[in-house]
Design brief:
alpha+beta
């Protein structure tokens, strides 16, 4: 596949809350190492507000139970089985909403580009899904930013900037324009979509077909 002169752009739509995204992210990292792709990270909010869990599931308790069932299924899909539903079940804080973590990732992108977005996204997901910390807590987000080595002062400035919020909203609008209704979703060159926590071989075959199509269209 090295004969492709131009990189395929893959937009990776994800949410910090999404256990299935946690499983897919290492596979996309591997893909980017093995194929000529440029990964662009896009925010998608499954539960945008603190009230969203009740609105979606009917109650906080019922929502947490159903979400943790998804965690257990996602853990079977995850190559390293890192999702710790049993630990999260014991936590007494409300299940977090999406926006604080998504803003943290977008602020990281402003400070350090797409790689910084990815690093912070993965670190927040680990905090949420393996360590089972409250990622709606600002101090938890700061600790994640510190862990990946970003300039915390620059990150905080970006985090509270309205432009960062607008960038996040722009990602939501882009998802809507593509017809994305769930995550993880990969979109290559703005026209080839792949939905769900697909195994690496499936993602690889999907990309190889796209590379061949793009080569033939030149």
């Amino acid at each position: 596949m090295k004969e492709a002169e131009q990189k395929i752009q893959i937009e990776f739509f994800h949410d910090v809350l999404c256990a299935w995204c946690y499983a897919v992210s290492p596979r996309v990292i591997r893909l980017a190492k093995e194929y000529p792709v440029e990964v662009v990270h896009r925010c998608f909010a499954l539960a945008p507000t603190p009230e969203a869990i009740v609105e979606i599931f009917g109650s906080k308790e019922g929502g947490k139970r159903e979400i943790l069932d998804h965690w257990r299924m996602a853990n079977l899909n995850d190559d390293e089985h890192r999702v710790n539903a049993d630990l999260m079940e014991k936590r007494d804080f409300d299940y977090p909403h999406s926006i604080p973590g998504l803003l943290a990732c977008k602020a990281a992108e402003i400070v350090g580009g797409q790689n910084a977005h990815w690093d912070v996204f993965d670190r927040i997901q680990k905090a949420h899904l393996t360590e089972c910390r409250n990622i709606a807590d600002f101090e938890v987000l700061i600790s994640c930013v510190k862990d990946v080595g970003l300039d915390v002062e620059a990150w905080h400035k970006a985090y509270i900037d309205r432009k960062t919020f607008d960038m996040m909203l722009s990602d939501f609008e882009r998802a809507y324009g593509y017809g994305v209704t769930g995550v993880p979703t990969l979109v290559a060159n703005s026209r080839y979509g792949l939905v769900g926590a697909q195994k690496y071989e499936t993602i690889k075959k999907w990309l190889e077909k796209i590379i061949q199509r793009e080569l033939l269209s030149r």
